[in-house]
Amino acid sequence: xxxxxxxxxxxxxxxxxxxxxxxxxxxxxxxxxxxxxxxxxxxxxxxxxxxxxxxxxxxxxxxxxxxxxxxxxxxxxxxxxxxxxxxxxxxxxxxxxxxxxxxxxxxxxxxxxxxxxxxxxxxxxxxxxxxxxxxxxxxxxxxxxxxxxxxxxxxxxxxxxxxxxxxxxxxxxxxxxxxx
Length: 180
Hints:
Blueprint: H1 3-9, H2 13-22, H3 31-45, H4 48-54, E1 59-69, E2 78-88, E3 93-102, H5 109-115, H6 118-135, E4 142-151, E5 156-160, H7 163-177
Parallel strand pairs: 3-4
Antiparallel strand pairs: 1-2, 2-3, 4-5
Helix pairs in contact: 1-2
């Protein structure tokens, strides 16, 4: 029997459960959610392209990276948490990797980008990542964005956002941003 389960199921279990609930810095997940996360982690670790994207050879990588930036005192700023920010210093490249799980087949992921407005999220992350890179002293770095998607069928694919798609997304973003 798992030790933590034994503590909750055994004598004094309610006190231990209360301790877990009140603990800071911990997130409780159910067994199904844990299994989904574990499955996605195994898929990523078994995929050479995903591991290459997530961990640059010569640079830094930051997981669950929170960053905020302001534009000017008369404007609203941006803040967000990027799943994975990989900065390849030697290649002067900034890469955002957005990890997604999907209950649908990978072939339907492009539809999700539109319906859930992942393109808008990508535009926010691009601005945050390039702002952080400039704080590191990088000048005119290249930029890549990848959706790393695991589906219910235990498939994983790394979808790069193409330049032509960025042009369309940036245009849509500018229209969105004018509202503020």
